[in-house]
Design goal:
alpha+beta, Immunoglobulin-like, 2 domains, four-stranded antiparallel beta sheet, 3 helices, 16 strands, CD2/SLAM_rcpt
Length: 266
């Protein structure tokens, strides 16, 4: 019994060590990369080992093989969505996927067998995104009488692309699609750059602007505001009196206008 159990323990121990070693080998022999590519660009899947040391290669997309290589038969291509878009390398062992499309996003595997040993499996998690081609800046300047300056509201937008970040530079350096600040006439013309970027591209738009009193106004003259606020603070009833007076004046104005029209017609 002791010998029996000793034998079983020894076997189990070897099996456990073998499993752990296998797990370690799989982890050590796998290289994973995350890759971003723009629509219409290419993906290079070239083996980084001397050609004479490579026995065979299998290229897979989402676990399905689409191309292969052996020293004896060179390249082979299987039916796949990449038909007509695969370029075979001559000096090295490799495949290039051309004219990438959104449906090409996924997991690419490159399994390489060497003449003397098996090389690490290459795993590429690939994301295909739209490049940024156009960046537009929308601006709005409004003259504020109370400060003798312009309120500036600017927005930056990149259309047709995803995961976009924005950066303003020049007169102001800040992140974000929207930018608000105050600009005085004394500063004359200022230049702002908006750079939009995502994982596969970047593009910049430039805008020059200046402030003057001819911009649309946003508030009443300061003296009027101070007068009204003082009266309201002194007695809330004065505010009601002012509103009623304005309405009566408007009504009287309309009546006088109608009377004048009647006299002219007569």
């Amino acid at each position: 019994m002791k010998d029996y159990y000793g034998y079983c323990f020894s076997f189990s121990g070897k099996l456990l060590i073998g499993i752990l070693c296998s797990m370690y080998v799989v982890s050590a022999d796998t290289n994973t990369m995350t890759v971003y590519r723009a629509i219409g660009s290419s993906l290079d899947l070239t083996v980084n080992y001397p050609k004479e040391s490579v026995s065979s290669v299998r290229w897979k997309f989402n676990e399905k093989q689409f191309a292969g290589y052996t020293q004896s038969h060179a390249y082979s291509q299987q039916q796949s969505q990449f038909a007509g878009r695969l370029k075979e390398e001559n000096d090295k062992v490799g495949i290039t996927v051309q004219d990438l499309q959104p449906q090409d996003s996924g997991m690419f595997l490159m399994l390489v067998d060497g003449t003397e040993r098996q090389y690490p499996t290459q795993i590429f998690t690939v994301y295909i995104e739209n490049p940024i081609t156009v960046v537009q800046i929308e601006k709005n300047l409004t003259w504020r009488v109370s400060t003798n300056s312009c309120d500036v509201d600017m927005k930056c937008a990149a259309f047709g692309a995803e995961s976009v970040s924005y950066r303003w530079s020049g007169y102001r350096n800040v992140n974000g699609a929207q930018l608000q600040f105050s600009l005085s006439p004394a500063e004359e013309a200022v230049t702002l750059n908006c750079t939009a970027a995502n994982n596969v591209s970047s593009n910049t738009s430039i805008e020059t602007l200046s402030c003057n009193a001819e911009q649309p106004k946003t508030d009443a003259p300061l003296a009027v505001l101070k007068l009204v606020s003082s009266l309201v603070a002194a007695s809330p009833y004065l505010l009601v009196t002012i509103i009623l007076g304005v309405k009566c004046y408007g009504t009287q104005g309309d009546h006088d206008s109608q009377y004048a029209d009647t006299v002219i017609e007569e």
